[in-house]
Amino acid sequence: MIDINKNFTQLSEDYLFRNIALKVAKFREENPNKKIIKMGIGDVSLPITKNIVKSFHKAIDDMSKKETFKGYGNEQGYDFLRENIKKYYQNRNVILDIDEIFISDGAKSDLGNILDIFDNNINVTISNPVYPAYVDANIINGNKINFINGDISNNFLPTLDDKCKESLVYICSPNNPTGAVYDKDSLKNIVDFANRNNCIIIFDSAYEIFIEDQNLPHSIFEIDGAKNCAIEICSFSKSAGFTGVRCGYTIIPKEVKLNKISLNKLWFRRQSTKFNGVSYITQVGANEFFSEASQKEIVNIVKYYKRNSKLIFDTLTKLNILCYGGVNSPYVWLKTPNKESSWEYFDLLLEGLGIVGTPGVGFGKNGEGYFRLTGFSSYEDTILAMNKFEEFYKK
Amino acid sequence: MIDINKNFTQLSEDYLFRNIALKVAKFREENPNKKIIKMGIGDVSLPITKNIVKSFHKAIDDMSKKETFKGYGNEQGYDFLRENIKKYYQNRNVILDIDEIFISDGAKSDLGNILDIFDNNINVTISNPVYPAYVDANIINGNKINFINGDISNNFLPTLDDKCKESLVYICSPNNPTGAVYDKDSLKNIVDFANRNNCIIIFDSAYEIFIEDQNLPHSIFEIDGAKNCAIEICSFSKSAGFTGVRCGYTIIPKEVKLNKISLNKLWFRRQSTKFNGVSYITQVGANEFFSEASQKEIVNIVKYYKRNSKLIFDTLTKLNILCYGGVNSPYVWLKTPNKESSWEYFDLLLEGLGIVGTPGVGFGKNGEGYFRLTGFSSYEDTILAMNKFEEFYKK
To answer: Does a cis peptide bond (omega within 30 degrees of 0) precede residue B174?
Structure first.
């Protein structure tokens, strides 16, 4: 017997960002001379920093000489990089063993592939709105998804309830798309619930570097008890500008068990079987991210993007458009001012202002009537976009 | 309900290459001054070629400037690279559309991840002996594996029989570990069988570049009818020396369907959801592989490795050790001369000669009593190893 995975037929036909790309391409074709300001897909715009670039070149030199050439590395990544990630967490008083850290080609791969270690048809808890790839990966696996609703009443920070028992819980904090961040108390409630109710948490911390409020947790492992129930998935995409370089990491403490089986061991085996590690060149560059010199460069980049998101937040607020995020996140999440649907607002901004954003409904039902703008454009383009907003809404 | 994927408990405890690494580490600890010649894991030893190195540096320069920086690319890869792969196939009269080519971070990832588009519990046909990752990935997915036996009687080129109907058929040609290559007639039989009996073929062509016999097919798509039933997975690992760089590609013709569903569309969706493309730097380097200048460099590298495998083949044959492969493959597959088991022979070579090879049984039951050596070492080490063999067996 052979058959396709029929769960694919349950996926909705198109993927959010692909739809946006098609609409933009059409607009560009019809308006070849109009400038388009991209504030849609969460892609960075600043180049790789000088020190990381230097490391990349050095790594390539290594690959060009017989004495320093690197072939297959460990599937779980080079120790030098894992040691530095360990130290990065140590600075927040999170003590990890390097065997608990797995280097990957990006958070998106791991967020999907992690499902390999779980049964099919399991219960999954996903906040709504959220990054759409969680949902699609779980549909492909045939899992039963229970959405927990983020909305104005809970500041887009949903909590767990009885329906979430015995489930795999996805938490994204700072949240994509809303920019909402769980504080330690609310995260503690989630961790305690998970430990009491046989849940495993997948904590997506891809945007942790944008947190500026000293009291907010960057890692779920800052919370007592999380090491018994949580997997953390992070990325160099937004911090080191690696969206086009592809590197991330997944942390599975050895204590995390399901029916007495260590998930760390299962993931190790999954990766040993279906993955062959990340490019040596990429890992050397990612490693440089942690140097003192690079951290200084990175701080400036984060500041640059956040100046943009603050400008967006402040401008829209001044125009009486209700906004979330923008402070501990590169994203500004706005309520469409005249009850436009998310896609109506997309068309309005694209056709009226030449601005590409992301329709909130693309992140789930609860995103309908909302819209995401990002601070990842250039400062100049962000000013330009905000001027267009002001002009448009002052008419 | 939440549970682990219980199929993991069906995996045998350890992975072949990890076992070897452990034994070698132990030997090294106990014999710190003895030279070890590595002819075990199929890893290349020559550095990346000059032109590809140049392209890598150029790609990094692109990433270091705002004007040329690349963020997210298409999940399926850059068109420039796909166009060149298309041309590479065109040279063998295989006409592809670039939408049929998906760039990946290596064959191992795709060989495992491709199972996502198939149902669980499907029938799978795997030749034995073969690259062990096929088996483990299928166990993880809960599939029912039917082995087809390669042995002396069929020159390690098993054919399909009634038990293979309605199954996913893995074919690796040139075969890892035996070095055996299907000719066009035998491959045509497999393709015809697949088309008659609702099979899908996964054709692993990772070693195609080592084929020197002009009559042997490099791609399954050189065979009439293959476009209706085959997926081909290839890699830059052995051809461009990318074992540590990670790049490969998967070809799914649009005509390949299962129950009227296009597998190309399913894989496109799978990759869009659970993968985010390969590093721009890597893709620029892989692209350079196809230039005239690089192809000349690559020819020399392949010659270098094959001089090694020929030397191994000739030396062992002279010593009356039965050998396969070595001609259209970097691998020499030998029958242990004194009925040693594969692991006994591993210990004998490591402890007696300081040579690391791969126990044949690691590639499946039919590999018991066989052993794999590779031409991927340096020429100097290969000579040294062969001198040790001669000395040992002439005693």
So the answer is: yes
Q: Do B43 and A71 touch (CB under 8 A)?
A: yes
Burial (CB count within 10 angstroms: exposed 0-12, middle 13-18, buried 19+), residue A320: exposed
Interface pTM, i.e. ipTM: 0.96
pLDDT at A14: 65
Answer whether B166 sits within 8 Å of A1, measured CB to CB.
yes
Q: Is B267 helix (H, G, I), strand (E, B) or coil?
A: helix
Kindly list the residues from chain A whose CB atom is less than 8 angstroms away from the CB atom of residue B50.
64
A-B interface: how many C-beta pairs under 8 angstroms? Answer: 250
Sign of the Cα pseudo-torsion (B94, B98, B100, B102, in order): positive
> Which residues have CB under 8 Å from A394's CB, separation 6+?
A319
B359 min Cα distance to partner chain A (Å): 18
Find the closest chain B residue to A200 by CA distance: B2
Domain ranges of chain A: 6-47+296-394, 50-292
Query: d(Cα B92, Cα B82) in Å, to the nearest integer?
Result: 16
Total residues found in chain B within this entry: 395
Mean pLDDT of B240-256: 98
Q: Which helix (H) or strand (E) holds B357?
A: none
Do A281 and B278 make contact, defined as CB atoms within 8 angstroms? no
Contact B309, B334 (CB under 8 A): no
CA B72 to chain CA mean position, Å: 28
Predicted confidence (pLDDT) per residue in A213-272, tens digit: 999 999 999 999 999 999 999 999 999 999 999 999 999 999 999 999 999 999 999 999
Would you say the C-alpha torsion B218, B219, B221, B224 has a positive or negative sign? positive
**C-beta atoms of A274 and B140 within 8 A:** yes
CATH class of B6-48+295-394: alpha beta
Contact A137, A115 (CB under 8 A): yes
Q: Which residues pair with A103 in a beta bridge?
A: A249
For testing contact with chain A, the best of B104, B193, B279 (most A CBs within 10 A)? B279
What is the CATH architecture assignment of A50-292? 3-Layer(aba) Sandwich (3.40)
At A101, give phi and psi (nearest 5°).
Answer: -115, 125
CATH superfamily for domain A6-47+296-394: Aspartate Aminotransferase, domain 1 (3.90.1150.10)
Tens digits of residue pLDDT in A280-323: 999 999 999 999 999 999 999 999 999 999 999 999 999 999 99
- What is the value of pTM for the model shown? 0.96
Q: What is the pLDDT of residues B266-311, one digit of tens each?
A: 999 999 999 999 999 999 999 999 999 999 999 999 999 999 999 9
